[in-house]
Amino acid sequence: MSATATMVERPPPRARGWPRRRIAGYALVGLWILFGIGIVSYLFFAWNPDFFAKYAPAYLSGLGVTLALVSISMVLGAILSVPVAYGRMSSNRILSGLAYCYVYFFRGTPLLVQTYLVYYGLGSFRVELQSVGLWDFFKDAFNCGVFAFALNTAAYQAEILRGAIESVPRGQWEGAASLGLHKLQTLRKIILPQALIVALRPYGNELILMVKASAIVAIITVYDLMGNAKLAFANSFDIQAYIWVALVYLVMVEILRHGVEWIERRITVHLKR
Amino acid sequence: MRISLRIALAASAALLTLGVAQAQEKTLRIGTEGAYPPFNNLTADGQLVGFDIDIAKALCDEMKVKCTFVAQDWDGIIPALQAGKFDAIVASMSITPERKEKVDFSNKYYNTPSAIAVPKDSTLKGVTKEDLAGKTIGVATTTTHFNYASKTYTDSTVKGYPSSPEEQADLANGRLDAIEDDIVVLQQFLDSPDGACCKILGQPSPQPVEIFGPGAGIAVRKGETDLVNKLNSAIAAIRANGKYKEINDKYFKFDVYGAES
């Protein structure tokens, strides 16, 4: 055996002693732990049963509004994303151009701006909207929030859908065609089952982003979780109001994250080796 | 790695020296909102103007200190004061018991009543709880007007807005039946082109001092009695030497100071 054969690539040995990098790492982790302990002990010492009794019901109703807003917008967005994704993949230049512009606008501008435009912007076209009977819908702040959020998430979901479908190799389409399946059958039975595995993580991310972004509606007078936290803070000037709301969002996101992971484990069983 | 370590060291050094630097600071940093014309407003080119600003400048001249101004969102203005982002709030902040638990106040520097504005074609007759039952009232949150509205108009829907311009926009476009705000702020809005839609319906009465407080004061961090005393004597001084009247007349047709305390 020659000497070169033993030259196997392997990871470098673990550093011994206390190089600067390790010290810095421990220091940073230590800081984070201290920070965490700080928050927990703050909540422990600032525990105020009155605050809880007074504002917990408001937080709960706010949570309901947040969940309703996010789920309705996600579903409407998902429905709307299908034609947009179709347009994006279409060879018709007008169709794909329109879909491109839609996605470009909604991904390129902040959701905050879009929400403001829908709520206050459409508000200044009251007479025109009344004449076509849409004012009753846009008069309500919650509807405006759902409208803006659904349009926004549709753009992102369309891109997720398009990317996932295009990630399935062309050969699959051709194979299906050679078996005599028509396009819709191919899409439903062969392409989508594979594409949705790819799309699951991005969908999960989008859902989490929407949950967090939903706090924006507090500024257009919707009393969601954040709106109620702002009210609680306004009445008490107690920073707890925001710490609790952050914890609720954190728990929601954790639950969603684990949910997505669980689904992924379930649907990729056949890919595990 | 080397760079990040340096940054971390520099940051911690900066944090350590910040406390020292703050103690040595001779200028008084004043926080204000900048979205409450005519009291305080940010102009298009980023200048703070208004009654609050002019009063603050006059007080600083009187106390012989240099002043700088910081614009800060209303919702976070008390936490920002407590966090040391500035040393005093001159932002038409009403002196209320809840706020007094968090900050100390100078004496009032003005006191104007709360009022209700409605669209010109409104059928509303008055501003009592019964008159406004079933209606939607817009008020800026974290204000005395909001506290009053949510306690008084319990049969109406009280919607909270981040600041006055938003509630005014929603009154103009018809989402709201009425808004409650400081009478001077409402008048300023009604005099603008956007306010042509609307009129002042009346002033809620009585306006309890437990909710509205004795007027607007200057807020400082708890325990800074020295600064409070200086501000109080400066307010008294500009009232006496005519400076207050000069500023008052620049903005208003009547004396906004209210009753002598």
Automatic annotation (TrEMBL), chain A:
A single GO BP term for this record reads: amino acid transport
Q: Which GO terms describe its molecular function?
A: transmembrane transporter activity
Q: Which InterPro entries match?
A: AA_ABC_transptr_permease_3TM, ArtM/GltK/GlnP/TcyL/YhdX-like, MetI-like, MetI-like_sf
Which keywords does UniProt give here? Amino-acid transport, Cell membrane, Membrane, Transmembrane, Transmembrane helix, Transport
Q: Where are the transmembrane segments?
A: 23-47, 59-86, 207-227, 239-256
Classify the main location. membrane
Q: Where is the ABC transmembrane type-1 domain?
A: 63-260
Q: Which GO terms describe its cellular component?
A: ATP-binding cassette (ABC) transporter complex
Give the highest taxon in the source lineage.
Answer: Bacteria
Subcellular locations according to the entry: Cell inner membrane; Cell membrane
Membrane topology type, per the record? Multi-pass membrane protein
Q: Spell out the family assignment given in the record's similarity comment.
A: Belongs to the binding-protein-dependent transport system permease family. HisMQ subfamily.
UniProt-recorded name of the protein: Polar amino acid ABC transporter, inner membrane subunit
UniProt source species: Mesorhizobium ciceri biovar biserrulae (strain HAMBI 2942 / LMG 23838 / WSM1271)
Automatic annotation (TrEMBL), chain B:
Signal peptide residue numbers:
1-23
- Assigned keywords, A-Z: Signal
Q: Does the keyword Signal apply?
A: yes
Give me the Gene Ontology terms describing cellular component.
cell envelope; membrane
In this chain the Solute-binding protein family 3/N-terminal domain maps to 27-255
UniProt xrefs under InterPro entries? Iontro_rcpt_C (IPR001320), SBP_3_CS (IPR018313), Solute-binding_3/MltF_N (IPR001638)
Q: Which residues form the Ionotropic glutamate receptor C-terminal domain?
A: 27-254
**Keyword Signal attached:** yes
Task: Enumerate the subcellular locations listed in this protein's record, separating them with semicolons.
Answer: Cell envelope
Gene3D superfamilies for this protein: Periplasmic binding protein-like II (3.40.190.10)
GO MF term set: ligand-gated monoatomic ion channel activity
Tell me the SMART domains matching this sequence: PBPb, PBPe
Q: Primary place of residence?
A: other
What the record says about family reads:
Belongs to the bacterial solute-binding protein 3 family.
Protein name according to UniProt: ABC transporter substrate-binding protein
